[in-house]
Design brief:
Strand content: 15-25%
Distance between the termini: 40 Å
Number of helices: 15
Largest sheet: 5 strands, mixed
Low-confidence stretches: 5-34
Oligomer: single chain
Shape: globular
């Protein structure tokens, strides 16, 4: 057992005790309506009474001309629930999340705040047919990302064949010269990938962006499901829902597949920056789900170009590292010499094939929002297939046509920095002030390569329990794919919900919450 694993064992045990799915705590139990009394009482409105999607495509009810018949059994169960009892249980569920340590950290200029990711008890429902398309599209993108990354660090055929411009790669801040010519098991670079999807006004899924560095949020997918099973079993009764609890097993299986050659039972570890990282809860969760040690950089050492972890029994070899540390902090010998988070010499071991890093160093190139714009043509180039999931139309400000169109139509577009995340730096033109648009226009002209723009999408909505009742709120979806020899996609993924009325920004750092995502059998 490694030193960091010992430090976290109490925390992890607490999580396990809190989220065992074998029983339902007495305080949760089935949702029941109050017993009728002899004296008359005012009628309690059903959960969905008066719900209006506001003209947007709704994940539960569909569109007026295209009702979501597949979700009818779920809607029927929701209609039968008692609002007051449901609110009480929702409040208890949120308290359970906090008591179990399921928080994320928000960094502000003044404070560092631990918050519970708000959880909405009304699930997001996806039909089997829709999921089949999503599953295919995600696999397609992950395969293309891995082809693209191998290509740019080896033969660069996509550049010589004119599929993408050389500047897209060579001027990318995430391109790592040290990875040129490095061969990886099965040419897998993005072992864990998150693909952000939205559903437009016609009910069609579209890809919003790819996350190929360290996509986060899968812990909420699993814990949300556990919470629903414990707190709201009536909602799930007699409905076939695909399981998500085997994610840890599949993740470990795929990571073990890409271990160094001739290692029969590779030792996998999760590398965390430490307890002060915003996603530390998830790091503990991942190590627990896979049954592997959680380590910090100080727990690892490189000897003769091989990686070992310090344990109470002495040094033990490490073969696969699921790292939650950015490239720049991974190895002070290769990258930032002042980093105290990484492991000196780990890149030497990695390049020689003695250890596997997931995700691979340099995968951030595929995370770039400008590269995203080229994904449809890259899918056809590498796979010879049409994209199963369409991109949102994207204008690259680094190209003359894209720059001109963006400047001419900024008030109607969504502007994004190419390397941004968490919703920071996004300007929604139709809702921005004249001053904000003027500042954005100046920033675009000063550094056009740093921006892309996209049209406003009428994001789908999902019924959400709010103080005044059930109201529509905009949602997105992040399916998670894990890749070793091949790719497996977790059924459903993370549904994020914009809790502010009318808001299109679903990120937790911007006030968003999450829902359980049900893929129907």
């Amino acid at each position: 057992m490694c030193v960091q694993h010992l430090r976290c064992v109490f925390f992890a045990q607490h999580l396990c005790n809190s989220f065992e799915t074998g029983g339902i705590p007495a305080r949760f139990g089935p949702v029941k309506k109050p017993k009728s009394k002899k004296t008359s009482a005012p009628a309690v409105p059903s959960l969905m009474e008066g719900y209006d999607a506001g003209g947007f495509y709704c994940e539960l009810t569909g569109a007026p001309d295209k009702p979501a018949q597949f979700a009818a059994p779920v809607k029927k169960l929701l209609d039968a629930l008692d609002m007051r009892e449901l609110r009480r249980r929702a409040k208890e569920a949120e308290r359970e999340l906090y008591n179990s340590g399921i928080t994320f950290t928000v960094y502000t200029k003044k404070d560092v705040i631990d918050r519970v990711l708000p959880f909405d008890i009304i699930p997001r429902v996806i039909s089997k047919r829709d999921w089949t398309k999503v599953d295919k599209g995600v696999r397609q993108r992950v395969a293309t990302i891995n082809h693209f990354l191998h290509d740019i660090y080896h033969d660069r055929k996509c550049i010589s064949d004119g599929v993408v411009p050389a500047s897209l790669v060579d001027e990318n801040d995430n391109f790592r010269d040290v990875m040129k010519g490095v061969d990886l098991p099965y040419n897998t670079y993005a072992h864990i990938c998150g693909v952000d999807l939205v559903r437009d006004g016609q009910g069609d899924f579209r890809v919003l962006e790819d996350n190929a560095r360290t996509p986060s949020g899968v812990s909420y997918v699993i814990e949300n499901r556990h919470l629903m099973q414990r707190a709201f079993p009536d909602l799930m009764r007699n409905i076939g829902i695909r399981h998500v609890s085997n994610y840890g097993q599949m993740l470990h299986e795929k990571l073990a597949e890409v271990g160094p050659p001739n290692v029969r039972d590779p030792q996998v570890v999760v590398l965390t920056p430490g307890v002060y990282n915003s996603a530390f809860f998830e790091h503990v969760f991942l190590s627990r789900e896979m049954g592997v040690p959680l380590v910090e950089g100080r727990d690892l050492v490189v000897i003769d170009d091989k990686v070992f972890m310090q344990t109470v029994k002495g040094l033990e070899p490490v073969h696969v590292i699921y790292r939650r540390i950015d490239d720049d902090f991974l190895d002070p010998e290769t990258f930032n010499p002042e980093s105290a988070l990484g492991v000196p010499g780990i890149m030497r071991s990695y390049i020689k094939g003695n250890v596997t890093l997931a995700n691979a160093v340099g995968t951030g190139v595929a995370d770039d929002k400008a590269v995203y714009a080229y994904m449809p043509r890259l899918i056809e180039y590498y796979l010879g297939e049409k994209p199963a999931l369409a991109n949102v139309d994207t204008h690259i400000c680094g190209e003359p046509e894209g720059l001109e169109y963006t400047l001419d139509n900024l008030e109607n577009l969504v502007l994004k920095p190419v390397g941004g995340s968490g919703g920071y730096g996004v300007i929604i033109g139709p809702r921005a002030s004249k001053r904000a648009l003027a500042i954005a226009r100046k920033a675009i002209k000063a550094d056009p390569d740093n921006f892309i723009s996209q049209p406003m999408i009428d994001l789908s909505v999902s019924p959400t329990l709010m103080p005044r009742g059930v109201e529509p709120r905009h949602v997105d979806l992040r399916p998670f794919a894990v890749t070793g020899k091949d790719t497996w996609v977790l059924p459903g993924g993370l549904t994020r919900v914009a809790l502010k009325k009318g808001s299109l920004v679903v990120n937790s750092s911007q006030g968003g919450g999450s829902k359980d995502t049900w893929v129907l059998e």
